[in-house]
Amino acid sequence: MFGTRADAVVDSAFIVTVLAPLIALLGVRLVRQGREEAHKRLQTVLLAVCVLAVVALEIRIRVAGGSSKLVAGSPYAGSTLLNVVAGVHIAGAVTTYLLWCWLVFVSRRRYRSVLPGGFSRKHKIAGRIVIAGLFFTALSASAVYRLAFWG
């Protein structure tokens, strides 16, 4: 897709990751417009798409024989730089996705037709952390993609 060594699965997962924080911000706008149901649907669908993209990427990595095989053509393959950047990316992404899953699950259970409720403040704080995490994940994924598939 981008003229790199990455295949369609890797490129698709990358696109989803980069677009996720922007779409999540759209969800914030929906809430500010009083469209809570649309916000709820958007966040749930976005989370599902992101999780599916990660699962597809993980399957692709396994089919390739591991991440080292997938990035074998990179001049950074096996380097400390790529390993550290990838490790930091994975740690941030996993933490973000776990918090996001928790937030969606708990929010759906606690949602009431009259807002704001007692959970609203925690939801807002956790939502901000998730969006910051999604931006971090997008930036770190971009660094991994650059090191692993360009050049």
Q: In a few lines, what is going on in this structure?
A:
The protein is built from five helices and no strands. It has 151 residues and is mostly helical.
Core attributes:
151 residues; elongated; 79% helix
How are the SSEs placed, and which strands pair?
Blueprint: H1 8-32, H2 36-64, H3 67-70, H4 80-110, H5 120-149
Radius of gyration: 17 Å
Largest sheet entry: none
Protein structure class: mainly alpha
Number of structural domains: 1
Shape assignment: elongated
Q: Helix share of residues? A: over 70%
* Uncertain parts: none
Mean pLDDT: 94
Secondary-structure element series = HHHHH
Q: Number of DSSP strands?
A: 0
- What fraction of residues sit in β-strands? under 5%
In oligomeric terms, what are we looking at? single chain
Can you count the helices? Answer: 5
The termini sit apart by: 15 Å
Report on this structure.
- The chain is mainly α and 151 residues long.
- It has one domain (8-149).
- It contains five helices and no strands.
- The protein has helices at residues 8-32, 36-64, 67-70, 80-110, 120-149.
- Helix 1 (8-32) packs antiparallel against helix 2 (36-64).
- The mean pLDDT is 94.
